[in-house]
């Protein structure tokens, strides 16, 4: 059996480069996509303001947050942790988790594996503008990608 690895070109991005989009209140800036990493992972920068975050949920992909700026309150399983800049929080696939930004601005690198999960974020961005008016659509998208809101 022969395994052939696809050669990829190197990618260098300036700090503000990447395709940005809105996912609810979050600004997500794509740094590396599934195309860039042969589907292994995707890398994005998440930016938002105090009080925003994600409600408790679980999904079949892994996420790792590396806090660049501000302070995040992370809840993973039954463990709650305040994560200042420089902190890393890893969410295993299937783990119930959520987060809230405690500082005026919060920025984190978000590593998603496998990269195919980035389709969830993009579809929410395209179809859901507000959870109070678009909850039915949000639930449809969550079901499609195996995400459960708690």
From TrEMBL:
<dbReference type="InterPro" id="IPR013096">
    <property type="entry name" value="Cupin_2"/>
</dbReference>
<dbReference type="InterPro" id="IPR053146">
    <property type="entry name" value="QDO-like"/>
</dbReference>
<dbReference type="Pfam" id="PF07883">
    <property type="entry name" value="Cupin_2"/>
</dbReference>
<feature type="domain" description="Cupin type-2">
    <location>
        <begin position="50"/>
        <end position="103"/>
    </location>
</feature>
<dbReference type="InterPro" id="IPR014710">
    <property type="entry name" value="RmlC-like_jellyroll"/>
</dbReference>
<protein>
    <submittedName>
        <fullName>Cupin domain-containing protein</fullName>
    </submittedName>
</protein>
<dbReference type="InterPro" id="IPR011051">
    <property type="entry name" value="RmlC_Cupin_sf"/>
</dbReference>
């Amino acid at each position: 059996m022969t395994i052939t690895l696809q050669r990829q070109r190197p990618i260098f991005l300036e700090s503000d480069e990447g395709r940005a989009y809105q996912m609810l209140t979050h600004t997500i800036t794509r740094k590396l996509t599934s195309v860039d990493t042969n589907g292994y992972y995707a890398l994005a920068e998440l930016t938002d303001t105090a009080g925003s975050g994600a409600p408790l949920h679980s999904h079949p992909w892994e996420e790792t947050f590396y806090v660049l700026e501000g302070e995040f309150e992370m809840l993973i399983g039954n463990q709650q942790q305040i994560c200042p800049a420089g902190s890393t929080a890893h969410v295993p696939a299937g783990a119930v988790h959520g987060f809230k930004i405690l500082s005026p601005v919060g920025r984190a690198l978000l590593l998603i594996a496998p990269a195919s999960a980035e389709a969830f974020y993009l579809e929410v961005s395209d179809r859901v503008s507000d959870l109070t008016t678009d909850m039915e659509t949000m639930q449809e998208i969550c079901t499609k990608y195996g995400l459960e809101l708690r």
